[in-house]
Design brief:
The protein is mainly α. The protein contains nine helices and two strands, in the order H-H-H-H-H-H-H-H-H-E-E. A two-stranded antiparallel sheet has the order 1-2.
């Protein structure tokens, strides 16, 4: 017969016992993190398999983005569900605890397992994702540098910030002979300064460039000035087009980053919910377990 003193001792032991089974939580987190890592790597492999560097080949950027979001959501649901179920199934059995309290503890165990698994997975994947993103940025920068002539001109201007002013020191009113390399460099610096500042070619620069063009092409001064105006207009249009393309690319990148962050937020919320729900299922299965000891059936306390 159980005495009052034994009852009080048992009640005190139950009240002082922690409601957190860290061993079960860590086990569930380890399983969820491992499965998340495997599924993410599988997603990377499938993504690289369907992407092609050639225009018109492989899946489109929109299809790739949608499939990436769906895969992340599936990864979160499956991995978090497994981790939450393990955390609920492997916990200790809480004796003399109300059903609502058991439900809350199971939910908390699933959420903690999801949180730890998410942090571990983010730490493991961050390095590889950063390397892939860095490689993609460098490849995109190489393409832009090869197609945007205005960027190359600006770089040359920055390399010699005072070259234009040095050229003005040696300008002559007479038709002095200038080598081809020297004239090319001088005209490049003049156009770079004009396009970089206000996009207008001064009358002095226009006259000087027309003089060089007339010497090398045997055109009349009027024809040389007309050619200078035409070429400078084309260069300004090319620079404006490059700026517009850069702004459009920046807007698209910002929108893509925003949508990616929002959908990742939704996927993580789905993972947290699935982990908490699966932990309650695992907890119910754990409470339904009975132990057989020497052919005597009893409900275990823990």
């Amino acid at each position: 017969m159980i005495t009052n003193s034994e009852t009080h001792l048992y009640s005190a032991e139950v009240e002082n016992h922690s409601g957190v089974s860290w061993a079960a939580i860590l086990a569930g987190a380890a399983g969820a993190a491992a499965l998340s890592l495997i599924l993410i790597l599988l997603g990377f492999g499938l993504g690289f398999a369907v992407v092609s560097p050639w225009a018109g080949s492989g899946v489109s950027a929109k299809a790739l983005g949608i499939s990436t979001i769906v895969w992340l959501a599936v990864t979160q649901i499956v991995a978090s569900g497994l981790g939450g179920y393990l955390a609920g199934r492997l916990r200790v059995k809480w004796a003399s605890v109300h059903t609502d309290e058991v439900f809350f503890r199971d939910t908390a165990h699933g959420f903690l397992a999801w949180a730890i698994a998410t942090l571990v997975t983010a730490t493991l994947v961050a390095g590889s994702v950063s390397s892939m993103i860095g490689g993609g940025v460098q490849a995109g920068a190489s393409v832009v540098a090869g197609t945007a002539g205005a960027a190359t001109t600006a770089a040359a201007s920055k390399a010699e910030p005072y070259g234009y002013f040095v050229d003005t020191l040696f300008r002559s009113d007479t038709n002095a002979a200038v080598s081809d390399d020297a004239s090319d460099a001088m005209v490049t610096r003049i156009m770079a300064k004009s396009l970089g500042n206000d996009g207008q070619l001064s009358s002095e620069d226009k006259t000087w460039v027309a003089q060089l063009v007339s010497q090398r092409t045997n055109l009349t001064p009027a024809q040389a000035e007309q050619r200078v105006d035409q070429v400078f207009t084309q260069a300004r249009q090319a620079m404006d087009s490059a700026k517009a393309a850069a702004r459009e690319a920046a807007d698209q990148a910002a929108k893509a980053a925003a949508w990616t962050a929002l959908w990742m937020f939704v996927a993580l919320l789905c993972g947290a919910f699935c982990a908490s729900l699966a932990a309650t299922w695992g907890g119910r299965s754990r409470d339904a377990v009975i132990v057989v000891v020497d052919d005597y059936v009893s409900a275990p306390v823990r």
